[in-house]
Design goal:
The chain is mainly alpha-helical and 192 residues long. The radius of gyration is 37 Å and the shape is rod-shaped. It starts with 6 loop residues before the first helix and ends in a 12-residue tail after the last helix. 78% of the residues lie in helices and 0% in strands. It is built from 5 helices and no strands.
């Protein structure tokens, strides 16, 4: 059959076949490039900003955890504790910026459902943090820098007092427990 076609016809057919193959390959390449461009656009305008926002939230929370642990260190001077409290405030600003950045990015229905769950858990964590800071401030106002050491001291005095009563004396070298507290309202009457 190809013997009946002239050389000119064979060459034209070959070039048309090669042109068709190039056209099909070009179409699939163009389609792949278009899809890749769409994915890159989604990545750069949606995924990366939301990842960056969530990373800021994570880093801020880590800084707050670190500062919470530092302020209860009894060996840390008060200036350093104030520095840690300032660091907490800066971390909260970073967290707010991260959440704002994340909220501006579009989310799918599944991601939005997860985000709503996260927001509820986040509010619970914020309340726990506020309660922690309130307890820290309460202890600080009472002058209790090291609650564990204060508890051990009070327990020790209580045990001495108890032993003193069992032996018929006043116990605890005559000290009342409330006098050991930094802000006792009034001294107790002597023990019988």
């Amino acid at each position: 059959m190809l013997k009946n076609i002239s050389l000119h016809g064979r060459l034209m057919g070959s070039f048309l076949l090669m042109g068709g193959i190039v056209m099909v390959v070009g179409f699939f390449g163009w389609r792949g490039t278009h899809q890749l461009s769409s994915h890159i656009d989604t990545l750069s305008n949606n995924s990366l900003p939301s990842i960056d926002g969530l990373w800021r939230v994570n880093e801020g929370q880590t800084q707050i955890h670190s500062a919470e642990r530092a302020i209860v260190n009894p060996d840390l001077p008060s200036a350093a504790k104030q520095s840690e409290l300032n660091r907490m405030q800066a971390a909260w600003k970073q967290i707010d910026a991260g959440l704002k950045e994340y909220e501006t990015t579009p989310r799918g229905p599944d991601e939005d459902k997860l985000y709503q769950t996260f927001k509820q858990q986040w509010q619970a964590w914020k309340q726990d943090h506020a309660a922690y800071l309130q307890a820290y401030q309460d202890f600080t106002q009472l002058g209790v820098v090291n609650p564990t050491a204060r508890q051990l001291e009070l327990t020790s005095h209580l045990m001495k007092r108890k032993r003193g009563r069992e032996q018929g004396g006043r116990g605890a070298e005559g000290k009342d427990l409330l006098q050991l507290l930094p802000c006792s309202p009034a001294p107790l009457p002597p023990a019988p």
